[in-house]
Design a protein that fits this description.
- It is built from 16 helices and 17 strands.
- With about 425 residues, it is α/β, with parallel strands linked by helices.
- The protein has two domains: about 230 residues, Carbamate kinase (3-Layer(aba) Sandwich); about 150 residues, Aminopeptidase (3-Layer(aba) Sandwich), CATH 3.40.630.30.
- It is elongated.
- The protein starts with a helix and ends in a 9-residue tail after the last strand.
Length: about 425
């Protein structure tokens, strides 16, 4: 019978997904571009206000550019309406301490500016940059109204010159989808360059978004670390969850596979715990999880977010010169991004470098079986892997297992 130490699982850390992202945004600056018409839709300003409230309480600086249709709109009157609406949503007990007191009361009124009337000579950007810094050095929020046709362009220029941590473009159409209708969670600069080649956006059915893609690329080249494209009602999900709701753009390769280091362990432990809760990973003891971390690889997205994890267990099968894929898990947002395949390829390369004869994996999930077979594994009998694998193994679970194996051959020299 298994001992308690063998059956415990890594508990879900109270420091969850939202807290993880808020920790990333702490003391940084985020810039949002939102059309006024989106905010005026049912629940629109409420969705924006909740996110702003979380960020401001988190000591994050926030710039919000609101695009106003030019026809039939009095921008001064619109500014008053936006101020009353958002100030009521944003100024709460959690956030009031971050705004200066005016006549004994906390106020965010100075955060709202009509940027459409600001110029330094002929340079509209210079005025906006100055206003942004003068405002944000005193309080955490700047809401600037601009003409809608200038919204995305000014947002990327302002974000690039200020080198904000993240630019969020909120659009009714949300994130990017492929010609086949598949959502694209991530795009890096090479993918953007490809789409922006003559005729490519049109071929992919994205011709109406070419201006947005140009702005995204300009922001990344200008120094913005990441750009998010999503809807207003999906804003919180895009910023605070692994799944997201739109498309994240980065300049560098969207995914790098690296060996895990000790500073990665806490985040990857949370991923493993999530996989256990969802039933994709079997319960493991703290010691077993530690072995995955020490012998594992992570799929790193952007600056330091992990999309998945994979361990290569070697020590238990050292005499047989065999390795086992353990703890393979990728989070939902990255299911279609090839992350799992890249993790397996990295583990197999490591196995070859170590001179292993073969690598095997066990799963009870049919989709996982299909996945492993696509990576070159074949179905084998439990007797075709080391007997030490089955010492103390639960008989009923073993009966349900699919065992897959990938025989390895040494890498051939490049000139062979």
């Amino acid at each position: 019978m298994a001992t308690r130490a063998q059956t415990i699982t890594i508990a879900a850390d109270e420091f969850g997904e939202k807290e993880f992202y808020l920790d990333e945004f702490h003391a940084r600056t985020l810039c949002f571009a939102v059309a006024l018409t989106d905010g005026e839709r049912p629940g629109g300003f409420e969705s924006l206000g909740r996110v702003l409230r979380d960020l401001i309480a988190n000591e994050t600086r926030v710039i919000v550019l609101v695009g106003v249709p030019e026809r039939g709109r009095d921008l001064r009157a619109e500014l008053g309406r936006v101020r009353r609406r958002l100030q009521r949503l944003v100024l709460t007990d959690d956030t009031a301490r971050r705004f200066p007191a005016v006549r004994g009361r906390r106020s965010a009124s100075e955060s709202f500016v009509d940027l459409s009337r600001q110029r330094v000579g002929a340079d509209e950007l210079a005025a906006s940059l100055t206003i942004a810094w003068v405002t944000l050095r005193k309080q955490p929020l700047l809401v600037g109204l601009v003409e809608e046709h200038r919204l995305v362009d000014l947002a990327q220029r302002l974000a690039g010159r200020l080198r904000v941590h993240k630019l969020i473009l909120v659009q009714e159409t949300g994130g990017v989808t492929s010609a086949a209708g598949t959502p694209l969670s991530f795009m890096d600069e090479p993918m953007l360059e490809a789409v922006l080649q003559p005729g490519q956006a049109e071929w992919a059915g994205l011709s109406g978004r070419r201006d947005t893609f140009e702005a995204v690329r300009a922001a990344l080249v200008g120094g913005v670390r990441a750009v998010n494209l999503c809807t207003l009602d999906g804003l919180a999900r895009e910023l605070y969850t692994y799944e997201g709701s739109g498309t994240l753009f980065t300049r560098e390769d969207y995914c790098r596979i690296e060996r895990l280091g000790i500073d990665d362990f806490e985040e990857v432990e949370r991923l493993i715990a999530r996989g256990q809760r969802e039933g994709y990973l079997k319960p493991r003891s703290a010691t077993e999880v530690a072995r995955i971390l020490i012998n594992g690889f992570g799929a790193e997205i952007g600056s330091h977010h992990f999309a998945g994890v994979c361990g290569l267990e070697i020590d238990a099968y050292r005499l047989e010169r065999v390795g086992e894929i353990v703890g393979l898990y990728t989070i939902t947002r990255f299911k279609g991004e090839g992350v799992g395949g890249r993790l397996i390829a990295r583990a197999l390369a490591e196995a070859r470098a170590l001179g292993l004869r073969y690598v095997f994996a066990c799963t009870i999930d049919e989709r996982a079986r299909v996945f492993f077979e696509r990576q070159g594994f074949v179905r084998v009998s439990p007797d075709d892997v080391p007997a030490t694998k089955w010492v103390g193994y639960e008989r009923q679970r073993r009966a349900r297992l699919r065992v897959l194996r990938c025989d390895l051959s040494p890498e051939r020299p490049a000139d062979a």
